[in-house]
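Final report, Chapter 2: Outcomes

The project's central promise was a pipeline that accepts a single protein chain and returns its three-dimensional structure in a standardized token representation, suitable for archiving and comparison. That pipeline is now operational. To close this chapter, we reproduce one record exactly as it appears in the project archive, with the input sequence first and the structure output second.
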Amino acid sequence: MIGICWSLADPKVFTVAAVIPMCPGISAYTAMIMVVEISHLGYSEAWIETMITHFLKASVIDAVLSIVLWL
């Protein structure tokens, strides 16, 4: 019975759940790794720059996906 309900759902329901984690994945993962390295090994200008760059890239990708899927 649940399979019938799921088959009648709009395909966007499944697409959103699959696409949003995959697209910004590498950038978000790199930003998290930089946070761990900064907290473990100390401050480094290059690590801060890498963390902020990848965090902003992941945020922009998420925002664009949210806006596009909302339309």
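Archive annotation: Residues 26-34+45-71 form one domain.
This record, like all others produced under the grant, will remain available to the consortium after the project formally closes.
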